[in-house]
Specification:
Blueprint: H1 25-36, E1 45-47, H2 48-64, H3 82-94, H4 96-102, H5 108-116, H6 120-132, E2 140-146, E3 149-158, H7 176-192, H8 198-216, H9 228-231, E4 234-236, H10 237-243, H11 249-256, E5 265-268, H12 271-279, H13 286-301, H14 307-322, H15 330-354, H16 357-380, H17 386-397, E6 400-404, H18 422-438, E7 460-462, E8 467-471, H19 486-503, H20 524-542, H21 560-580, H22 594-605, E9 608-610, H23 612-621, H24 627-636, H25 639-645
Parallel strand pairs: 3-5, 6-8
Antiparallel strand pairs: 1-9, 2-3, 4-5, 7-8
């Protein structure tokens, strides 16, 4: 990674001399940008990730519009028709004249069926049929490999049924105003969609909301919902039936068109929540369920109907919840629609046009250094005993990195699309995906599958596959540039790599072994020592409140997994950087030492500002801490940062060495 001709990777003109890095590294690096930047009117937050995502959207739009959309009519076929299908999907979304002409007509049949529901069994049947077509049902369901046996696929059944972001929105006083807006929003949408007028819409809205509130009462909160050991509850179909006796699962699956055998054994992730919803499937609640179903149909389809209906839906889910005053431009939403339907078909062309294969080689080298730095660190841990250490090293040896794009691309031949049928396209996409996912059960695990597209600006760790994945679109500034000196690349993308590896050893990922199996491979003493360290980190974040939150604190328990990833990622990235130097001293470039370039690159990667509404929403539901703390609180724990900047007691980022946390 070292290169005599390398540049620092740091724009010195962007550094704010009015803010000392010892006091606030985040604003020292990003303060000028924050001061001059207005959050775009269609965004709730804006920063480095959003800028790269916008660039990727523009690149994808050029790919999509490179093929003329076929005339209306179903397009079938395999790879040779992919470009036509992509163009047709986009054209169907961009045809606002047709959308406005149709209004709510595309869902009129579904609305009529929902209105006519006269019994609970009929309700269950209609919900099941619509769920296959992408309308939210009673529960969340997805397919993944089995945490107890990672060599097989299994269906997960999760809590569901709500229209607000989280169960806390139905009970916490801080969301009282949002609840009132939500009830009014339901009524407005039912009116606009022609479901009911004025007083009747108000009555239905109240019924739907009250039912959701009762459903939410049995939901697990966000902290409990991330505890994999509590979530992992294997049940046979008969066992699932016992949890939810009022829901006939065999009839439900038959009406859904789901193969019963795929549900022979499932993970009933939150049994109390599953049971709580099913207890409400009684005749006394039928009128409320009809209102709930009508709202589910409208809510699930609103973005695909007239511009008036789509905008009204955004008024709540965009403006009220996140603070963004304007919808994204239609073409950007059209790009998202296409990517949700045929993301890898677009991704293949994106990679051909925008991915430098040299980046993949450089990333391979970076990953190698990070893995070895983790290995060295694990071998030196004072709090970990030999038995757990051996298993940790075995897990590290089994990590699979994936960089850039999949080795094989998804097959979209089963999907038929029509440039003149937007809602129909959405429903067909949902049905094909439904069949594809459930079709995995009983088949060998496909370890080549990706769960992000190459044009996604993000990365992930998959505990069941024990893999770290870095899509092509994140491999660019401010995260990575082949021309940068190694310090900047290690401080930015290197820390991202370290973060994702760190998820394999966070409070939840550490419960999986190297094969992706959920098993207790720790000694009791080592787990207790680990939890003592994580408890200290939780306490640090519980004491923080970001700008714009009106004093609301970070939830240290909700964010602990990501905070461990950040802490371990940056700490190990620093060790990996030193390792890459082979014993040489870091060069001084642009007047900056290697350590300064490393930490400045880390800070510029977290560049972001948010609207207050979005800040509060994310504090409630997001397992990531606010960006200012992902930057600043992490470096407070790292001795190399304090050494690089000569911090002293009284400095904003000073943390007494006795209070600093180092886990991995």
């Amino acid at each position: 990674m070292t290169n005599a001709a390398s540049v620092s990777g740091i724009d010195l003109s962007e550094l704010d001399p009015a803010v000392r890095p010892q006091d606030d590294l985040f604003r020292h690096v990003n303060g000028k940008w924050i001061e001059r930047t207005e959050i775009p009117s269609d965004k709730a937050r804006y920063g480095s990730f959003a800028v790269l995502a916008e660039n990727a959207e523009e690149a994808v739009r050029d790919i999509i519009t490179g093929t003329e959309a076929p005339a209306p009519g179903l397009i079938e076929g395999g790879e040779s028709r992919e470009a036509d299908k992509v163009a047709a999907l986009y054209a169907s979304f961009m045809d606002t004249e047709r959308a406005d002409h149709l209004g709510a007509e595309p869902i009129a049949g579904d609305v009529a069926r929902a209105r006519a529901v006269s019994s609970i069994p009929e309700l269950i049947s209609v919900v099941a049929e619509l769920e296959r077509q992408g309308v939210s049902g009673f529960y969340g369901m997805f397919v993944d490999n089995d945490p107890g046996d990672p060599s097989r696929y299994i269906v997960f059944v999760m809590q569901g049924g709500l229209g607000l972001p989280d169960e806390s929105y139905y009970r916490e006083e801080q969301f009282a105003a949002i609840r009132e807006q939500y009830r009014a929003h339901i009524a407005r949408m039912l009116d606009l969609a022609g479901v009911a007028e004025a007083d009747e819409a108000e009555r239905l809205a109240q019924l739907a909301y009250d039912l959701e509130r009762r459903i939410a009462a049995s939901h697990w909160d966000k902290v409990a919902s991330r505890d994999i050991q509590k979530l992992y509850n294997l049940r046979t179909l008969e066992g699932l039936q016992q949890i939810t006796p009022r829901l006939d699962w065999r009839a439900y699956l038959a009406d859904m068109g789901a193969p019963e055998q795929a549900f022979a054994e499932v993970v009933a992730a939150q049994p109390e929540a599953l049971a709580g919803l099913a207890e409400l499937l009684v005749d006394e609640e039928l009128e409320a369920w009809r209102a709930w179903l009508l709202w589910s149909i409208v809510r699930g389809s609103a973005s695909l109907l007239s511009q008036q209906i789509s905008r009204a839906n955004f008024d709540f889910y965009g403006t009220a919840l996140t603070g963004a005053p304007e919808q994204r431009e239609r073409w950007r939403r059209g790009v998202s629609f296409v990517e949700g339907a045929m993301g890898e078909a677009v991704g293949r062309l994106y990679v051909e046009r925008h991915f430098d294969e040299n980046s993949k080689a450089a990333m391979d080298e970076l990953v190698g250094h990070l893995i070895e730095a983790y290995r060295d660190s694990i071998q030196r841990l004072e709090w970990m005993g030999p038995d757990t250490r051996r298993r940790a090293l075995d897990k590290l040896d089994r990590f699979t990195p994936k960089i850039g794009y999949p080795v094989k691309w998804r097959d979209y031949s089963a999907l038929a699309v029509d440039s003149g049928d937007l809602l129909g396209n959405s429903r067909r996409v949902a049905e094909v995906e439904f069949a594809r996912e459930l079709g995995k059960v009983g088949k060998p695990i496909d370890r080549d599958e990706w769960f992000m597209t190459p044009q996604t600006v993000n990365a992930y760790y998959n505990p069941g596959f024990n893999e770290i994945v870095f899509p092509a679109a994140i491999l660019q500034p401010p995260f990575f540039d082949a021309s940068w000196d190694a310090a900047a690349n290690f401080g930015a993308i290197g820390a991202v790599i370290g973060h994702e590896i760190g998820h394999g050893f966070d409070d939840q990922g550490s419960r999986y072994d190297g094969e992706g199996r959920l098993t207790d491979w720790w000694t009791e003493e080592d787990r207790a020592a680990f939890e003592q360290l994580t408890k200290a980190l939780i306490g640090q974040y519980n004491a923080l409140s970001p700008e714009g939150a009106d004093g609301r604190p970070v939830n240290g328990e909700l964010t602990i997994g990501e905070n461990i990833g950040d802490l371990s990622g940056l700490e190990i990235a620093w060790k990996a950087y030193l390792r890459s130097l082979g014993g040489d001293q870091p060069p001084v470039i642009d007047g900056l030492t290697g350590a300064e370039r490393f930490f400045l690159a880390w800070a510029q990667a977290w560049q972001q500002k948010s609207r207050p509404e979005e800040t509060v929403r994310l504090l409630t539901i997001d397992p990531h801490s606010p960006n200012e703390f992902r930057c600043n609180q992490i470096v407070r724990n790292l001795a190399p940062f304090h050494e690089a900047y000569g911090t002293n007691p009284g400095d904003g980022l000073w943390l007494d060495p006795a209070q600093r946390v180092s886990i991995w």
